[in-house]
Amino acid sequence: MTRLFEWYPIYLREMLLFRRKLFKLGYLFSAMVVPIIYLVAFGLGLGKSVQTGHGNYLDFLIPGLVAMSSMSNSYTWVANALNLNRLYFKTFQLFVQAPISPFSIMIGEVCAGVTKGLFASVLIIFVGFTISPRFTITPLFIMVLLLNCFLFACLGIVTGMITTSHEDTSTYANFFILPMAFFSGTFFPVDKIPPVIRWIIDVMPLTHTNILMRKTCLDGEGAVSLAVLLVYAVVFFMYGSHTIRRYSE
């Protein structure tokens, strides 16, 4: 039974560090300011002139911002923290030397990333309920939100383990996370993207998160998107566990 909860000290450590930041007004402000700027600039500024086929543009935009926020925070918190702990603070080496399995380290770090991603997402959901009375969440929405946080937390583990400097994490974010944020259906439907690059968009996991978050129930298209997200989640989790197991610095 004890081995089943080996991950908990890893998770608790990250949560204690996270709690310190929660009491700082600057953190809460920074977590909300970017999505709110997007809401004002795109939703209130351009909303009346944008046709999405999904009704009111705010109803289209808010789920996309939740998906983007959960992706960015789950990924960034894990990738940056793990990179710093491994290369600069040298605390990750203590985890590896402790009588904790690599699988438990992976679970603890991923659960911490999921929690941080959910926290940022809840802030956006609260704003969404405030400015759009038609915005609703469904059980499918919640399930996909959890899966999205899990998927990108696992990707954050992979990035944090393979990068050789803190600057590299920003490079990976600029090449993978930033394009997904803008071209995966967050701000406009993907069917408006030129067909020549549509296949790239269809490969991005956030595209499928956005598709699912805008559905009220699981249909054929949603089942395909859900399968894609599950495959990404399993691959990232297995590879992240592998990098921790093979760690030798």
Structure description:
This protein has 249 residues and is mainly alpha-helical. The mean pLDDT is 88. The chain has one domain (3-245). Helix 3 (57-87) crosses helix 9. 76% of the residues lie in helices and 0% in strands. The protein has helices at 7-22, 25-45, 57-87, 92-97, 102-131, 139-162, 166-183, 195-203, 205-213, 220-245.
Order of helices and strands: HHHHHHHHHH
Based on CA atoms alone, the radius of gyration comes out at: 18 Å
- The poorly predicted ranges are none
Number of domains: 1
User: Helical segment tally?
Assistant: 10
Largest sheet descriptor:
none
Question: Helicity, in percent?
Answer: over 70%
Strand portion: under 5%
User: Distance between termini?
Assistant: 30 Å
Oligomeric description of these chains: single chain
Let me know the number of strands: 0
What is the typical, i.e. mean, pLDDT? 88
Principal-axes geometry comes out as globular
* Secondary structural class: mainly alpha
What's this, in brief?
With 249 residues, the protein is mainly α. The protein has helices at 7-22, 25-45, 57-87, 92-97, 102-131, 139-162, 166-183, 195-203, 205-213, 220-245. It has one domain.
